[in-house]
Amino acid sequence: QVRLRESGGGLVQPGGSLTLACTASGFTFSSAEMYWYRQAPGSEREWVASISGSGRSSSYADSVSGRFSVSRDDAQNTVYLQMNNLKPDDTAMYFCNVFRSWGQGTQVTVSS
Q1: I need a surface site. Which of 20, 41, 53, 65 has the fewest CB within 10 A?
Q2: What angle (nearest 5°) sits at the alpha carbon of residue 14, between those of residues 9 and 19?
Q3: What's phi and psi for 66, nearest 5 deg?
Q4: Can you give the pLDDT at residue 52?
Q5: Mean of all residue pLDDT scores within the chain
Q6: What's the CA dihedral at 104, 36, 101, 52 to 10 degrees?
């Protein structure tokens, strides 16, 4: 059974940084492409970033490119999302995704 658990969210001022983590179990983590999504209140869930199973390639939504960085630690079965220069528009619940499974999400609020 695939399990995903996100952590690291919180309240941060504009321009600040946060690092989210998603710890996974129930599948072969080292070969799985992993995804981050987010959903703001009243909006649809949107893709944020992804990282290949090898970790050698990653992709980002235009809205976060240059500010966010995704990485993985296969020894810890964990994928990270480093978020820098955060903006109020980044406020959302952030979710980890693999195959058709989702974690419970972690809330990120960017506000002064």
Answers
A1: 41
A2: 30
A3: 90, -15
A4: 96
A5: 97
A6: -150
State residue 12's pLDDT score. 98
pLDDT-derived band at 20 (thresholds 50, 70, 90) equals: very high
List the end-to-end C-alpha distance of the chain, in Å, as a whole number: 40
Query: Residues 6 or more apart from 92 whose CB is under 8 A from it?
Result: 38, 39, 40, 43, 107, 108
* pLDDT tens sequence across 33-68: 999 999 999 999 999 999 999 999 999 999 999 999
- Which has the closest alpha carbon to 50: 61, 41, 39, 40? 61
- Here the tokens at position 108 are 């990120």
Rg (CA), the chain: 13
